[in-house]
Design goal:
Number of helices: 11
EC number: 2.7.1.11
Largest sheet: 7 strands, mixed
Number of domains: 2
Protein name: ATP-dependent 6-phosphofructokinase
Low-confidence stretches: none
Structural class: alpha/beta
Pathway: Carbohydrate degradation; glycolysis; D-glyceraldehyde 3-phosphate and glycerone phosphate from D-glucose: step 3/4
CATH topology of the largest domain: Rossmann fold
Shape: elongated
Number of strands: 11
Strand order of the largest sheet: 3-2-1-4-5-10-11
Oligomer: single chain
Order of helices and strands: EHEHEHEHEHEHEHEHEHEEHH
Mean pLDDT: 98
Catalytic activity: beta-D-fructose 6-phosphate + ATP = beta-D-fructose 1,6-bisphosphate + ADP + H(+)
Bound molecules: 6-O-phosphono-beta-D-fructofuranose
CATH architecture of the largest domain: 3-Layer(aba) Sandwich
Strand content: 15-25%
InterPro entries: ATP_PFK, ATP_PFK_prok-type, PFKA_ATP_prok, Phosphofructokinase_CS, Phosphofructokinase_dom, PKF_sf
Length: about 325
């Protein structure tokens, strides 16, 4: 039976990663395992930056944002020689299996390691909610709360000045943060990769909101990587009755204390990951589907298409 497991966090950090580290460590230790923290993602794995974790060393972190293990992106991990180096570091310490908390790029690394004989289980740690096999990723709900708080504040000042606030939110080509926050904040327009962006059409809708609906302000929530929001704000000022102002929320969305949902999700997923590793199972990722914590083969998870958000988009249109 497996005796020593490792845990790492990889890619962009997300609130709740610490709760996952705590869960894996404590569930593991309580089941008689030794648990090791691998620092700075796959980079630390190849460099051998690996230390034992104890019940105490993961104390006082369930409520903390970020990740005590640090995170990194290592595109070179797709190279076999880099991975071989990493596997050697694990073997040197007798670490037979690893929990990887990160996005789908990190899952590819986890799959490759499993194929090299190190069982890995992936946990979905990203604010983007862009891992298609799970209804929610660890960190999404906390980031959503942050975005909603920021947009509520922008609304106050937009309303005082007859302005249009264009708010760029993260998501890495996934529109969930924009869509969820836009509905929750009562935005006037939401733009995501799924809705598409027709600049002239959006400007026309803003003119209608000003001239026909007599709105005092307008909020446009737009996913990152779609357009230059500063340039677009200038066009709003030139072509509509609103003064346009762009706000890019940026990395503020990734910080902060995880909300209870993310802490619970991370704890449940961490528990499931340890249970699978103890049964000698690897190459799977953990998901929440219809309120149940389940395991899915990574090969299957990576190929799943993104669920259409049409129903939520329709709801939004009916609320405007
Ligand atoms: O994947 C999380 C994320 O925050 C994305 O939303 C964003 O596009 C990206 O990471 C930013 O990456 P970095 O922190 O490396 O600038």
């Amino acid at each position: 039976m497996v005796k020593r497991i490792g845990i790492l966090t990889s890619g962009g950090d997300s609130p709740g990663m610490n709760a996952a580290i705590r869960a894996v460590t404590r569930v593991g230790i309580n089941a008689g395992l030794e648990v090791f923290g691998i620092y700075n993602g796959y980079k630390g794995m190849t460099e051998g930056y690996i230390e034992p974790l104890t019940r105490e060393s993961v104390g006082e972190i369930v409520n903390r944002g970020g990740t005590i293990l640090g995170s990194a992106r290592l595109p070179e991990f797709k190279d076999l020689d880099v991975r071989q180096k990493a596997v050697k570091q694990l073997q040197k310490r007798g670490i037979e299996a690893v929990v990887v908390v990160g996005g789908d790029g990190s899952y590819r690394g986890a799959l490759a390691l499993t194929e090299m004989g190190v069982n890995c289980i992936g946990l979905p740690g990203t604010i983007d909610n862009d891992i298609t096999c799970t209804d929610y990723t660890i960190g999404f709900q906390t980031a959503l709360e942050t975005v909603v708080e920021c947009i509520d504040k922008l609304r106050d000042t937009s309303n005082s000045h007859h302005r249009c606030s264009i708010v760029e939110v993260m998501g890495n080509r996934c529109g969930d943060l924009a869509l969820w926050s836009g509905i929750a904040c009562g935005a006037e327009i939401i733009v995501t990769s799924e809705t598409g962006f027709d600049e002239e059409e959006v400007l026309g809708r803003l003119r209608d909101l000003d001239l026909i609906k007599k709105k005092r302000h307008a909020i446009v929530v737009i996913s990152e990587k779609i357009t230059d929001v500063d340039q677009f704000a200038k066009k709003v000022s030139l072509n509509t009755g609103f003064a346009g102002r762009a706000t890019t929320l940026g990395h503020i969305q990734r910080g902060g204390s995880p909300c209870p949902f993310d802490r619970l999700l991370a704890s449940q997923m961490g528990e499931k990951a340890v249970d699978l590793l103890m049964q000698g199972i690897g190459g799977q990722c953990i998901a929440i589907r219809n309120n149940k914590i389940v395991a899915i083969p990574i090969t299957e998870a990576l190929g799943m298409p993104h669920e259409s958000r049409k129903p939520l988009m329709n709801l939004f249109e009916r609320l405007v």
